[in-house]
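Troubleshooting entry. Yesterday's outputs looked truncated, so today I'm pasting the complete records for two proteins to confirm everything comes through intact. If either block looks cut off, that's the bug. Protein one:
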Amino acid sequence: TEGGSRIDVAADLTIEGMDPGAIVPPGLLEPQIRIAARGSVTPSGRFVAESLTVDAPAVRLTGEGAGKGWGVDSATFVGALRVADLARFDSLVNQTLAGATNLEVSADWDGTRAAITASAEVQRLSTGVVGLDALLGAAPEIALDASFGADGAVGIERLELSGTGLLLWVSGEIGADALGIEWRLSLADLGAVAPVLGGSVAAVGRLTGMPDDPAATARLTLNDALLAGYPVSEARLDADFSGLLTRPAGNVALEGKV
């Protein structure tokens, strides 16, 4: 303590024989979890987490943070999550996974809005799905810059997934009475998805309207495509739909050169 104005806290906890139930994949948290933390608190509600470590058989979480008003007024957190063996998650996705991943995240809360930045790198990835593995490759990356308001509003500055043959980018806002999402997708080679296909794909689109009744527009362009053995130098598909969750209606137009 410092004149009785601060309480230093240190904890080291080991949990053995934990039964996480059916939600958590077997072997992820058992047979032992160790939690270690060090920090301080004040009577006024200020706290500092100098270090936090959670060690389990397949995952390791480390982080640090601070806040005041017990986190209601403001709070910050910086952390990292290491998953050593993605095969532990096979039962969740019903696929044979392999690889490891590192996730880094930082978060700031100002009392009304949380800003989150996160990035993940995967090593030696294998999903067991030939087409998906070809698009993602062995080392895909994910990046996110987003905000979450106390009123439920979500802002996505950037959500990006990049792999060997795929790039997906999303941005926009989701509110209680408005929706505005833009996305872009590019595939380097359709042949990676199916042998009877070929060429590259570029697609862009938007989601607008009300969150409970959105409308969508999209444009998909194929270049130097091969469709069931027939060469197509260029093809374009335009689509727009309304009432996606109520009474879907829309138009689709297709044009191309062979």
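Protein two, checking that the full record survives here as well:
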Amino acid sequence: DHFVNDPEAKKLLDTIKKLGVFNCFFSSGFESELLGYWALFDSDVRSIAEVYRKGLQQLEAAAAEGMTDSEQTKTFGIALSDFAAMGRLLSHLARFLARARQNLAGIEVLQRLVAVEEQLRPGTANVAAVAMRLAHQCWKIGYFGQGLPFAENALKIYNDIYGNESLQVAEASCQVALMHLGVHDLDQADRHMNICLKIREQVQGRDHPAVADALLQMGKISRQLSNVDQAREYELRANRCVRVVCWGQTCQRHVTKTRTS
């Protein structure tokens, strides 16, 4: 009903019909309108996301049947072999599906995006970033085993690029730990989360909120390992971090208020 009654929504829908399901993504700024505007309409966003999924399936089927790149571009507005354009399309589509809460479809698209990025920029931070997106999406819906290899791949790439004491490695180690925790591989979860904790303490400082988060995760893992005393120690340290952060924020607000009064 929104698309029937709202003139702006109707204009977007008419543009899709005129340009084609993929061409509209590559119009100047149009993908931002799609993601920002249609996300407001929960009742419609799933059907629109399905349109793009079906369009992608039709493109892949046409390519498999031997349709040339020029014919694909003419018909669909994009060729499957154009990795740069496919990367942009899949990245937008993955975000759109996430907003539509179509998690499984989003995971499928992100897997394709990882493959495209590996063709375009193998072994780069771009591949690792997409792999982390995919791993996080899998973690959100409990697909720990499916997401674990992608988190491990991101960790390896970040380690090769930035070194084993970088914040990128800390974030990837945290994601790997959460995946291992999800599949109840507690020893590996403890090892990777401990790596994350040590890097965050060294780089961000012992009182940083990210350190408190890692400490709480370490406490959770320790409890599952039946190390209750160790878990309490981590939790107490996390609480101290939180108090220090809150006290610092309170002091900063007081200083700011004093300066402006």
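Both blocks look complete. Sanity check on protein two: Residues 228-260 form the longest helix (33 residues).
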